[in-house]
From TrEMBL:
Topology class, membrane: Multi-pass membrane protein
Record keywords: ATP-binding, Membrane, Nucleotide-binding, Transmembrane, Transmembrane helix
Transmembrane segments: 34-52, 346-369, 389-417, 429-451, 458-479, 535-553
Keyword Ribosomal protein part of the UniProt annotation: no
Compartments, as annotated in UniProt: Membrane
Source species taxonomy: Eukaryota, Viridiplantae, Streptophyta, Embryophyta, Tracheophyta
Main location: membrane
Protein's organism: Arabis alpina (Alpine rock-cress)
Record domain ABC transporter: where: 618-855
Source taxon at top rank: Eukaryota
Protein's UniProt name: ABC transporter domain-containing protein
Length: 940
């Protein structure tokens, strides 16, 4: 098959996208269960709203009252009749009122026990003793530029007697100044000063204290029997506006030095009022609140204050007979209404915060899983660059998240949640879209902090539930506290969980108020008036910063980039890799101490570096790796100046005991760690500067199988084949051949999830992945581990066939595998290459002796030793136990025929149970070199 060349950006992106879609298809039911979570939550909120409607919104106290009126025909039956005349005062608010009642205008006055009395700063007020008798006057203050005019006006403000016109009682009340201590309501369909049980006060300039006048008002069933109590009014002049302001302030809520409430009913600033100008400022108390904390419509009371001063000015101009009667106040007619408290919208921010943040641990666990199982790095080693990975992964998670939120919008709207229905859908979609992007960027950023899925998942769920609970019990409380600085609210919103909660809180408030008033929720015209514009700015800025930080950390950590890589000139060329060997420090000392074969390999590498082109796929020049000191231990020299050249078409075997440095060497060549010094060249590319390009022509079979448990063997090979730029029929053919070569094609095994494979099947699949697409360089770490003899033999055949146009570096502990597959072997001990050559050369070089074994009875052991001394004077005993002895016989001292004759002669003298003569094996060479290798190590 022709070399397809490196895959383009779009090809690699397409491969990852196809793999992700296949992965989602395999996890279809998990996705469905995830999408059902907001659906169940919406149903839960609807159920709460239905329960609240039945118990509160539709309760008898929160709708217009009804009574059963008997029929006039005397049949004993009754007809249910509703209306304000059949309602309790609490129900009347909800009734249809086509013609609202006319209420006499009332002046808001303080309670008798809190009316202003004499303090050190205002000695013209009455003595405090009046509070014991309840006869303290209602004080009204005046100020302005003309005291004479002011004195005349406040003299005309109040009447001196109580007058009632019996023919028109309402008009008669208008000639008097009526006051109430009852606070106004949000509406005036039923004025609390009339409808409640409190008494009304007739405020006069002179009156008998506590004189009472009973009267009734209205018609059944809204007929109110009231008691009119005489209260003296006290009008006082102040020279400056600041005096009035201070007195009003100090008298309110224990603000005076004596710590007493000393309330003033009202105050007037006449400013420049004269005969030709009437210019007045009115002070009134707007701080009254009802039980729920809402401020009622106190402006209903202010109209009477304005009328009083207006009448006083008219009388000043035209005489005491001139007056503008203020007969009544009346509410606008209304249709029947119902209590419409949308409790689902009020509690929505908590639940929807949890629903939206629920994707955080889902995406985070997926990213950390790829890191934990090293799937990200194995994809990168097979050619998947950072660009395609980031683009497809980000777009993939964004698509899933937006589908999730669109389902949430559809579910919520379909089952009637006002939270979604009343607020403009375009605002909601924009908000969710922006926050989803911020959340995905945060996940990429946070994933760099975790290496274990369980730890990441626990931390993510703490973040999810903690954000919701803190938002409800802390952040919302601070938002609604008007005394809390708004600047600190902005600071708190910088925390992503609170910015999400604030946006949802704004949606809930607009939906709640819109439903209560029968209006729409949030529209774009409300955008700047709410906190949404601030939230949008925060989310957009944090999205950009989090994405940049995540990409930077990923480049530094996973790609091994320098932390200041962004400061480097991208157009600056890398320094030449082919430099004279004399420039390498310490190389002379190493050459003098190394074995001739290792020295010859080093000289070969030096010669290759001087050539303009080479057929060698892998060239390592004095490669070193030193791990820094840790926990008090000295630095670890893992690889000590390795020089190696592997041509295309050769399988090079690396042998060595555990800890010899083989894995560190493979990790440097595959880009997992950076060399401390030296250079590695793969296909003419430097592993330190061009690793991304090296990956496009590389295949890796790691020691541990790195596979997706839900993807089949065929899907794995299709993915990695696409990364190697295989397409169409070439891809299909390559996948089928790979499956057949490793015996995974027949019996439906190819289409079985890899998670259900046995250990040997996974191993074979890993080898097939490393070889698909005919990579130029392949690294195999113990490829036949865990295989049965038949499968191992078949796998060796596949590897031997694949090496024809590929350079393979293979590590193994099987001497049989090394002898069968490897063209050359290198034995690695304590970070150094001790010897190098083909298996026959190594056995000839390090196996210069025969191994003679003989087993006899214990009393003849001395006879065996004498026999060996006669055959080979320099023989060395290497083993002795229970009559069995082993000896090394130098080949230059013995002839095999002489050994046979000596054994035959010995058999006639004593009993020989068994004997044998063997040549040196590769395993013997390995053990011998490993034992003596430490003596050849030098530190360069």
């Amino acid at each position: 098959m022709a070399d397809p060349g490196p895959a383009s950006f779009s090809t690699r992106a397409n491969a990852l996208l196809r793999k992700n879609l296949t992965y989602q298809k395999r996890n279809l039911w998990s996705n469905i269960r995830l999408i059902l979570i907001p659906f169940y939550l919406c149903i839960f909120l609807v159920a709460i709203q239905i329960l609240f409607d039945s118990q509160v919104n539709n309760s008898d106290d929160n709708r217009c009252g009804c009574q059963c009126i008997p029929n006039t025909n005397g049949d004993g039956k009754c007809v249910k009749t509703c209306g304000i005349e059949y309602s309790k005062p609490s129900q009347a608010f909800f009734c249809s009122i086509p013609s609202p009642s006319r209420w006499p205008p009332l002046l808001q006055i303080p309670q008798p026990e809190s009316r202003a009395v004499s303090l050190a700063s205002n000695g013209d007020l009455p003595n405090e003793s009046c509070r014991r008798t309840g006869s303290c006057p209602v004080t009204i203050l005046f100020t302005g530029n003309n005291k004479t005019l002011g004195t005349s006006l406040y003299g005309n403000l109040l009447t001196s007697s109580f007058t009632v016109n019996s023919s028109d009682f309402l008009q008669g009340l208008a000639h008097n100044v009526l006051g109430t201590t009852e606070e106004a309501d949000m509406t005036n369909y039923l004025d609390p000063g009339i409808a409640s049980n409190v008494s009304l006060y007739n405020i006069q300039s002179q009156c008998v204290p506590n004189a009472k006048f009973p009267f009734s008002f209205g018609q059944s069933p809204l007929e109110f029997k009231k008691e009119l109590i005489c209260a003296q009014g006290l009008n006082l002049w102040r020279n400056k506006t600041t005096e009035v302001n201070d007195e009003l302030f100090k008298g309110y809520r224990k603000g005076n030095p004596e710590g007493k409430i000393n309330e003033i009913a009202a105050a007037y600033d006449l400013l420049n009022t004269d005969m030709n100008n009437f210019n007045v400022h009115v002070w009134y108390n707007s701080t009254y609140k009802d039980d729920s904390g809402n401020r009622p419509s106190t402006l209903v009371r202010v109209s009477r204050s304005v009328n009083l001063v207006s009448n006083a000015y008219l009388q000043f101009l035209q005489g005491p007979g001139t007056r503008m009667l203020f007969e009544y106040v009346k509410e606008v007619p209304k249709s029947e209404s119902r209590l419409r408290l949308d409790i689902a919208s009020l509690i929505g921010p908590l639940f929807f915060t949890w629903v939206i943040l629920l994707l955080f641990p889902v995406i985070l666990s997926s990213l950390v899983y790829e890191k934990q199982e090293r799937l990200r790095i194995i994809m990168k080693m097979h050619g998947l660059g950072d660009g395609p990975y980031w683009m497809i992964s980000y777009a993939y998670y964004l698509t899933i998240s937006m589908f999730y939120f669109i389902c949430l919008l559809i579910f919520g709207s379909a089952i009637g949640l006002k939270f979604f229905r009343l607020n403009d859908y375009s605002i909601q979609f924009t908000f969710y879209f922006l926050y989803v992007n911020l959340q995905i960027s945060l996940v990429f950023l946070v994933s760099s902090l975790f290496s274990k899925v369980k730890t990441a998942t626990v931390a993510a769920y703490i973040y999810v539930f903690g954000s919701g609970l803190l938002g409800l019990f802390l952040f919302q409380f601070l938002i609604e506290d008007s005394s809390f600085p708004r600047g600190w609210i902005f600071v708190l919103e910088l925390y992503p969980g609170f910015s999400l909660y604030r946006g949802l809180y704004e949606f809930s408030q607009f939906a709640f108020r819109g439903n209560l008033r029968g209006q729409d929720g949030m529209k774009w015209k409300d955008f700047s008036g709410s906190a949404m514009d601030e939230i949008f700015y925060i989310i957009i800025v944090e999205w950009f910063l989090a994405l940049m930080a995540a990409y930077y950390i990923d480049k530094v950590s996973s790609s091994g980039k320098d932390p200041l890589f962004f400061l480097k000139n991208p157009f600056k060329k890398s320094p030449s890799l082919r430099r004279p060997s004399l420039q390498r420090q310490g190389s002379k000392v190493v050459v003098e101490m190394e074995k001739p074969d290792v020295t010859q390999e080093r000289e070969k590498v030096e010669q290759l570096l001087l050539e303009s082109s080479t057929s060698h796929a892998i060239v390592c020049d004095n490669l070193k790796k030193v791990y820094p000191s840790r926990d008090g231990n000295p630095p670890k020299l893992a690889v000590r100046g390795l020089s190696l050249a592997v041509p295309s078409g050769e399988c090079f075997g690396m042998l060595g005991p555990n800890g010899a440095g083989k894995t560190s060497f493979i990790n440097m060549m595959t880009g997992l760690v950076k060399p401390t010094s030296g250079a590695g060249i793969v296909q003419g590319l430097d592993i330190c500067n061009d690793m991304d390009r090296v990956y496009t022509s590389m295949g890796v079979c790691p020691q541990h199988d790195l596979l997706w448990g839900t993807l089949t063997g065929r899907e794995h090979l299709l993915f990695y084949g696409r990364l190697k730029n295989l397409k169409g029929s070439d891809l299909t053919q390559a996948v089928e051949e790979s499956l057949k070569n490793v015996n995974l094609f027949h019996g439906g095994v190819a289409d079985k999830p890899a998670g259900k494979y046995s250990g040997g099947m996974k191993r074979r699949l890993s080898v097939a992945i490393s070889l698909i697409g005919n990579p130029k360089v392949v690294y195999m770490d113990e490829p036949s581990t865990g295989l049965d003899p038949a499968s191992r033999k078949n796998l060796w055949t596949v590897i031997k066939r694949a090496k024809q146009h590929t350079a393979i570096i293979l590590t193994t502990h099987s001497m049989e595998e090394a002898e069968y597959l490897c063209d050359r072997l290198g034995i690695f001990v304590d970070g150094s290459l001790q010897c190098i050559g083909n298996p026959k050369e190594l056995k000839g070089r390090y196996g210069g002796s025969y191994v003679f074994t003989m087993t006899t009875s214990s009393e003849h052991e001395r006879n065996v030793e004498k026999l060996i001394q006669d055959v080979s004077p320099n023989a060395k005993k290497i083993y002795h136990i229970s009559g069995t002895q082993k000896f090394e016989l130098p080949k230059e001292e013995v002839r095999i025929s002489e050994v046979f004759r000596a054994v035959e002669k010995a058999k006639s003298n004593f009993t020989v149970f068994a004997w044998g003569l063997a040549d040196t094996t590769l395993e013997d060479v390995f053990i011998k070199v490993a034992r003596t290798g430490q003596a050849f190590n030098v530190f360069s």
